[in-house]
Amino acid sequence: MSLPASDLQAAIPSIFAPWIIAMELEVLEAGPGEVRLRMPVKRDYVHVGGVMCGQAAMAAADTAMVLAMMAELGEFRPMTTVQLNTSFLRPISADHCLVSAKVLRSGKSLAFGTIDIANPDGRLAVQATTTYALL
């Protein structure tokens, strides 16, 4: 049973740390094992080069995958990131970016997923793969 985007959005304040909540991620779409988010690129995320820092992208990717797992499972279950491998393909210098996460496989104890972060024009900027342990 998949969770709708509105339920995932409503769950963010009760699941994530305050600094993740402050990122103001907006759940645009959700389906079984998939989510699409809008992430504002706040001034605090931009480094001296004028582009969004990788740490902000990785936090968004990790958060998006938890939401995709919730969509897959139909509920929040405790989990922890085992691996997050991130490739930075081009800079993000717009006022927002789009984060798409998809569960590739979910087993009894491990889950695997992929996350794409794109500029508003759709050009892929960050690609990540993840492994999660379900607790």
CATH overall fold name:
Thiol Ester Dehydrase, Chain A
Give the mean pLDDT: 97
Task: Give the CATH class.
Answer: Alpha Beta
**Structure classification:** alpha+beta
Strand content: 35-45%
Total helical segments? 3
**What best-fitting shape do the alpha-carbon axes yield?**
globular
| Strands ordered across the widest β-sheet | 1-2-4-5-6-3
Low-pLDDT stretches: none
**Helix proportion range:** 25-40%
Taking Cα atoms only, what radius of gyration do you get, to the nearest Å? 14 Å
What would CATH call the architecture? Roll
Q: What's this model, at a glance?
A:
The protein has helices at 5-15, 18-21, 54-73; strands spanning 26-31, 34-40, 79-88, 96-106, 110-118, 124-134.
What are the salient characteristics of this protein?
Thiol Ester Dehydrase, Chain A; 40% strand; six-stranded antiparallel sheet; 26% helix; alpha+beta; 135 residues; 3 helices
Describe the fold and architecture.
By secondary structure, the chain is an alpha+beta fold. The chain has a single domain (5-134), classed as Thiol Ester Dehydrase, Chain A, CATH 3.10.129. Helices cover 26% and strands 40% of the residues. It has 3 helices and 6 strands; from the N terminus they run ααββαββββ. Strands 1-2-4-5-6-3 form a 6-stranded antiparallel beta sheet. It is globular.
